[in-house]
Design brief:
3 strands; 60 residues; three-stranded antiparallel β-sheet; alpha+beta
């Protein structure tokens, strides 16, 4: 079974779309995170869940 670790990022309504895009791109390129879910709440807060696969080395 595949296991994932998750990271939640929150952005306020004052953050520009280009700043959000840059942050998500940096996490994807350098941290190997992938986009799992994005929600926009009342008040304009955007919460984004990122995930990446946990690779476990088999015991020798």
């Amino acid at each position: 079974m595949v296991e994932y670790e998750y990271r939640v990022l929150s952005f306020t309504r004052d953050d520009s779309k280009s700043d959000i895009r840059r942050t998500l791109t940096d996490h994807a390129e350098y941290g190997h995170w992938e986009l799992h879910r994005t929600r926009v709440y009342l008040g304009g807060v955007q919460r984004t869940w990122l995930r990446r696969r946990i690779i476990r080395a088999p015991r020798a």
